[in-house]
Amino acid sequence: MKIFANKKIRNVSIVLTVIHALALMFTPRTSWSPDPKELGFWLAIGSAVFSTVMFNVFFVKFPDKD
């Protein structure tokens, strides 16, 4: 994929995705869950991955917009 061609951006994206997923999982009083047996765990991971991919796509399509 073109969006992850840059190694530095790819590494930062992976770190931010993991931090985002953990933050969602451990947010109190929400449907997210740190337990892999629950749907909230997979929703948190899916949400973090989806948002990371969307941000990367956005930055590739509009790299020089101010």
Mind explaining what this structure looks like?
This protein has 66 residues and is mainly alpha-helical. It has one domain (1-60). The protein is 64% helix and 0% strand. The two termini are 25 Å apart. The mean pLDDT is 80. Keywords: Membrane, Transmembrane, Transmembrane helix. The chain crosses the membrane at residues 9-27, 39-60.
Secondary structure layout:
Elements: H1 7-25, H2 39-61
The protein's oligomeric status is single chain
Strand content: under 5%
Helix content: 55-70%
Tell me the Rg in angstroms.
14 Å
> How confident is the prediction overall: mean pLDDT?
80
Transmembrane segments: 9-27, 39-60
Keywords: Membrane, Transmembrane, Transmembrane helix
Give the tags:
single chain, 66 residues, mainly alpha, 2 helices, 0% strand, transmembrane, membrane, transmembrane helix
What is the compact description of this entry?
The chain crosses the membrane at residues 9-27, 39-60. By secondary structure, this protein is mainly α. 64% of the residues lie in helices and 0% in strands.
